[in-house]
Design a protein that fits this description.
- It is a single chain.
- The chain has 437 residues and is an alpha+beta fold.
- It folds into 2 domains: 196 residues, no CATH class; 133 residues, no CATH class.
- It is 50% helix and 14% strand.
- The chain has 13 helices and 11 strands.
- The strands form 2 sheets. Strands 3, 4, 5, 6, 7, 8 and 9 form a 7-stranded mixed β-sheet that branches. Strands 2-10-1-11 form a 4-stranded antiparallel β-sheet.
- The longest helix is centred in the last third of the chain and has 44 residues.
- It is elongated, with a radius of gyration of 33 Å.
- The two termini are 26 Å apart.
Length: 437
């Protein structure tokens, strides 16, 4: 008997007792359905988190602050009152500043690819060029060459030019009367900022206005800040220079720095930074999203345990089904052996029968979970859906690398479950089997 014939016969044998085979496949279906759906949810959540991580600089992005500032901020956030001792070396939270010498020392640490001062900009207003309506706005420059923002339209900022470029988010589409994100690309905005020193002398005439081109629109995300817009290095430097015009450089204080480092050297860099100046500390993307990822992983792990329990019950069902099948087909096994069928082919026949149970159960589980996943994605992204504001977040995400390994795993479990009954069938003595009543 050829292999294809054995496969065909094994699947035909499943139909001999339809109810028993159906119940066994149903048990496998429940377990595989649960695990496949959970894995798809896990893939969707992690894919979205990975996009968010990439959008804020990736695993190597750091936000640096003087140690004194972080310690005092942590103390303020703790329950109750915590008194910290004043140090002339570190100073107060507001006087703790990143000096040029310390900045250069941090840049020289092995593994630091880039480190720049983060300018705190407070523009007076922003409006669409030629329009009257003005809006409050917060801007920030980030090293966008390490960023991979999830954009609804347009492109990333180019920091290698002197062009004044800006990326808005979808919150600005309605105020600017844009029907869709594409309408905003290549439009010009006006940004007004106060010349701090001049405002003390001529308070009614101390505003400076700069025009910038909208080059992209950021899609909504859990880590994107509502209202915060990203600007190019050239625009950031221009606004910062205008705001601090006529102010001595030694009077300027820098509280933050942002940069890109080698993710594999995070711990070593952290220790080196603590030794520079009055001590510096930094936050990574993992510090920001680690708890979010862990929360989802724990929940999905619990559901996967239920799926594994269901598969264990299904495995027991496969063993029982095949043992009963061997018992019922004893005379048939004896006849096959008498006609020259080898032990291996007998073993293979029952093993393929077990694998077929796993295959059909997992295929049905995959089909139903994909159908439900498609429905859920459409539901949560509907007009009033839970994820209506996050169009790039597929809550349930199926892909071959997620589904195929689970189907193969279920088939392997089915094969292992059918091994004992298959061995028992293969070892039957043909004479005794033919006498069996």
């Amino acid at each position: 008997m050829k292999f294809f014939d054995i496969v065909k016969t094994a699947n035909s044998n499943l139909l001999r007792n339809k109810v028993r085979s159906f119940l066994t496949i149903l048990a496998i279906f429940i377990g595989s359905f649960t695990i496949i759906l959970n894995s798809a949810i896990n893939a969707g959540v992690n894919d979205f988190i990975d996009k968010q991580v990439a959008s804020i600089g990736g695993d190597g992005f750091i936000e640096v602050m003087p140690g004194a500032a972080i310690e005092q901020m942590m103390a303020m956030s703790e329950t109750g009152s915590k008194v910290t001792k004043y140090s002339e070396k570190s100073g107060s939270m507001l006087s703790a500043t990143i000096t040029n010498e310390d900045l250069e020392a941090m840049r020289a640490v092995d593994g630091v690819n880039k480190l720049e001062i983060f300018h705190i900009l407070s523009p007076e207003w922003m409006r669409l060029d030629g329009e009257e309506n003005k809006y409050n706005v917060t801007l920030q420059y980030l090293p966008t060459d390490t960023f991979n923002l999830d954009l609804s339209a347009g492109r990333m900022i180019n920091n290698d030019t002197d062009d004044f470029e800006i990326i808005i988010n979808e919150d600005w589409l309605e105020p600017f009367n844009f029907e869709k994100a594409e309408d905003a690309v290549d439009k010009t905005v006006e940004i007004s900022i106060k010349k701090t020193a001049k405002c003390y002398v001529v308070p009614d005439d101390c505003l400076a206005t700069v025009k910038a081109k909208i080059v992209g629109v950021q899609a909504p995300g859990v880590l994107s800040m509502d209202g915060d817009l990203l600007v190019s290095r050239a625009l950031d430097n221009k606004l910062y220079a205008l705001a601090n015009e006529d102010i001595p450089e030694e009077s300027l204080q820098n509280y933050f720095a942002v940069g890109d480092v080698d993710p594999d050297k995070i711990d070593e860099i952290r220790e080196k930074f603590k030794e520079i100046g009055s001590g510096y500390q930094f936050l990574t993307v993992s510090d920001t999203v680690g708890m979010i990822r862990t929360f989802f992983d724990v929940i999905l792990a619990v559901f996967n345990i239920f799926g594994a329990i269901a598969l264990l019950a299904a495995a027991i069902g496969i063993i029982n089904t095949l043992f009963m099948s061997v018992q019922e087909r004893t005379r048939e096994i004896g006849l096959d052996k008498a006609l020259g069928m080898s032990r291996f082919k007998i073993f293979l026949s029952f093993s393929i029968e077990a694998i077929s149970l796993g295959f059909w159960g997992s295929i049905f589980g995959m089909a139903v979970s994909m159908g439900i996943g498609y429905f859920v994605n459409n539901l949560v992204h509907g007009e009033d859906g839970l994820l209506a504001d996050f169009p790039t977040f597929d809550l349930v995400r199926f892909s071959p690398e997620v589904v195929i390994p689970i189907v193969l795993l279920v088939m392997l479990i089915a094969f292992l479950s059918g091994t004992l009954p298959a061995i028992k069938a293969a070892r039957k003595d043909p004479i005794d089997a033919l006498r069996y009543e």
